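ingest -> fold -> write
write: protein_1
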Amino acid sequence: MSWPELLAEARQGSALRASAAHGERHWRAVAAVGLRIARADARVAADICVAFAVLHDCRRVSETRDPLHGAAAARVARGSTVLPALLGPSRADLVAEACRHHNGGAPRPDQPLVGACFDADRFTLGRVGIDPQPRFFSVIRKQPDFAAMLRFAERVSDAPPDWPEIFASLGSA
């Protein structure tokens, strides 16, 4: 099982895959931010962040309000044959949990593996006109680290790395 196979599962049935706000460009930006968070905090796992990034918006059907998209992404995660092969069953469950609750979920400083996934997505909120506030974050909340990550997320949202680069970085993250 491979990362491109997980991406293929996410792409299959993705209504907004080409969307600038919620499609693959955004997924790649979230993955890049997740990788950066994992490098900054030893409690965070890069592979969990990337798996979350691939799946979290894969079943979104609206550019605006879509309260069920997290639960739909969690169903993809739970139904995946690739995800548990890549991460193991218990870590795949964490990805499903993060997908399910990422939209409006409370910060999770008690669970940095899930909280980092929320953070990776929330750092990119500027793309939809929302100014991220530290109180909604789990792992990187304090200045100057928060401001530096926000600047990185803004840059990477405009020009995220491609999937092969993201997947290759998991070997060194």
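write: protein_2
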Amino acid sequence: MQRKVIFILFLSLVVALHSCKQEDQKAEQECAPLNPNGDSELSLIMRKMATLAEENARAIREGKELAPYDGSFDKMLNAERSMHIEEDFFQGMAKTYISTINKLYEAKPEDRLALHNNLIQTCQSCHGETCRGPLKRIDKMIVTL
């Protein structure tokens, strides 16, 4: 009887360790860099921007309120980048984005569709000239009703 209990405890320990190892591997994959040049401060901000834009596109399509925005995207103006971008071009595009997102959040519900699409067109314009990789994802953020 005692051997059975010890065997069951041992077997439980092995199963638990195996499960824990699988969870660690999954967590490691979720934290893996997405950018082939590494995860710069700017790329992390832009991932947040993309997630918010996708949530807002869904909200606009469904006639719901916009997702909460904390105003933090102005940090991109001074963020460390993983690739060289001509400074004047980047600053101009970033300031246009920041201005447009602020207008979007101040707008009446009936004006949000046009402002959201203007915001996404800013992303398309910038990425069309610099890092083209995210364009396929960005293109899906345009809302047509």
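write: annotation protein_2
DSSP finds five helices and no strands in the chain.
Residues 13-17, 23-32 have pLDDT under 50 and may be disordered.
pipeline exit 0
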